[in-house]
Amino acid sequence: MLVDLNELKGECSCGKKHEISVKGIFIEDGAIQKLPLLLSDFKRPAVICDENTYAAAGKTACHLLGGCFSVVFPPENLHADEKAVEKAEKMLPEDTDVLVAAGSGTIHDITRYLAAQKGISFVSVPTAASVDGFVSTVAAMTWHGFKKTLPAVAPEYVLADSGIFSNAPMRLTAAGVCDLLGKYTAIADWKISAAVTGEYICEKVCSMEETALSEVSKCAAGLAAGDKTAYEKLMYALILSGLAMQMVGNSRPASGAEHHLSHLWEMAVINPPLNAYHGEKVSVGLFACLEFYGKINHAIKDRALLIKPYAGLDREFIRKCFGEGSLYDDIIKENTPDSLEKISPDILTEKLGEIEKILDGLPKISELQNIIKDVNAVFLPEHIGLCENIMEKSIKAAPYVRNRLTLMKLSKLMEF
Ligand SMILES: [Zn+2]
Ligand SMILES: [Zn+2]
Question: What is the pLDDT of residues 99-121, one digit of tens each?
């Protein structure tokens, strides 16, 4: 399956000219075999992987590229952080002129950040359909303990070999399904923000993601059965979500309150450090978010929701959650100027009907549970090592992790 990038690029009714920097995306059995041809202009390629993904794809990639250099990380405690970047920088030969990311999300974030630093390009060889970040232009890094989205480069090519990624551990594939399902609340947040503040939104991107979501919702049983076509559909949807970010120029189409919850837990300020995949944390965030948004929807329907004026940043609560140190300063910086300051309570009241309609479009919790049970995905806080009553505090704290407006953030002006 070759992704038709021309259909996504160019002038759009949203007023934007959508840019996509990826040159080609191949999602098929044997896609990795294209490496030598695509990289024939480069002299010193290097493969970035971990021990597991070296066995799955890195070894083949090195072999196909004439026994090129490889950075093979130990997979234990591997994170996209300053330590991994430093380690790879030290190991890579000076004259490396192109990188190959053979791995899942973490390896891709490390590689795309390194490629940007070195001013070279990279090729993506995903070893699992585990995240939507393969084609992202930004890297989700943890920099000195703080989750940051740092400028990076998108891959020049994606060689998604279903012969490789359909053999990934089911837990990784389940994480990918959940990262994708998180787009339901991400898109709802985007639509709500656009309705309330007039924020830019692209209908084409929204409907493209909604189509991909419904496609994948139908293929969970195929994934469980190891059907390569189902895996290709999931990978296609994940890549499309990454392309949506490129088209818009930020992660708005792919990340809303469900991701903010995940980022909060990754910071381990109100919980112990978690040993869970990105998609697993997003899954728990998504289900918590759906439940919370369901309550807001009910309150709107029952006319039991009051809009109150914004009381400003709750610095005392932020201090309690994030401590006194540099994290506190980072959170305050992230929230300056505060995206809630410009919200007029009158306009928000006026838009409640529209918000209700958007929330009505969200899937039911039971529907999503049905989809994810086929792939055995986690969805409860205790599944990922969180205590079961962490949600109230999380919902209060998570909106501070990003300045992006979500319904969860807007709920600070709501009483119900
Ligand atoms: Zn558009
Ligand atoms: Zn994600």
Answer: 999 998 999 999 999 999 999 99
Whether residue 383 is contained in a domain is answered as: yes
Q: Is residue 243 part of a domain?
A: no
pLDDT digits (tens, 9 = 90+) for 187-240: 999 999 999 999 999 999 999 999 999 989 999 999 999 999 999 999 999 999
| Domain with 262 in it | 173-202+253-415
Burial of 22 (0-12, 13-18, 19+ CB in 10 A): buried
Extract the runs of DSSP E, i.e. beta strands, from 40-97: 45-50, 69-73
CA proximity to 196, closest of 401, 409, 416, 415: 409
Nearest-ligand number for the alpha carbon of 263? 2
The CA distance from 257 to 401, in Å, is 10
Please indicate, yes or no, if residue 190 is contained in any of the structural domains. yes
What digits encode the pLDDT tens for the residues 276-302? 999 999 999 999 999 999 999 999 999
Proximal ligand: closest to the CA of 255: 2
| pTM, rounded to two decimals | 0.94
Higher-confidence residue of 137 and 230: namely: 230
CA 42 remoteness from chain centre: 31
Q: Ligand 1 centroid vs 201 CA: distance in angstroms?
A: 8
Indicate which ligand has the atom closest to the C-alpha of 11: 1
Residue 12 CA, ligand 1 centroid: distance in Å: 5
- Asked if residue 181 and residue 327 are part of one domain, the reply reads yes
Length of the chain: 416
What distance in angstroms lies between residue 34's CA and the mean position of ligand 2's atoms?
Answer: 28
Are 184 and 323 found together in one domain? Answer: yes
Query: Which two three-digit tokens encode residue 350?
Result: 């006026």
- The number of the ligand nearest the C-alpha atom of 136 reads 2
